[in-house]
Amino acid sequence: MSTERMLPFPLHQRRRHAILWAKGGMEVKRSVSVLGGDPRQLYLAELFREEGHRVHTWGLAPPEAEPPLAEAASGEIVVLPQPVSRDGVHLNLCRGELRLEELWPLVSGGGRVVLGGRVDPAVERSARTAGVELLDYFLREELQVANAVPTA
Question: How do residues 13-38 score in pLDDT, each as one tens digit?
Fold first, then answer.
């Protein structure tokens, strides 16, 4: 995996972790879209902002306070919630609903990195069919271990 596609892990720890993508030895700031989920996603968006990345969010605030989905989903890195979907059809949202088939065209192509947690095989297939390479961040061992501690 090239350094331009290095995953931003571990994100679950409280201390700061620089999210680095190197290009010719320089640190590059990226645009990040954090879509759907729950208050953990708001915390994640704030971590990205603190690192100096441009952050767009959607599905986390009242609808009147949110940008259009196409604008919010325009990041080079797209972070979806854990689980990505509870029913295999819709994005996991606190309020409202969005079919995954409506989301995939907005986040496909352009070398984007699309991340989601606990990706169901049917969701992964639908993403791949739409040309989206969906990477499951919950497969990372350090995230599973850190997640197990509070739930034990």
Answer: 333 334 445 555 567 788 999 999 99
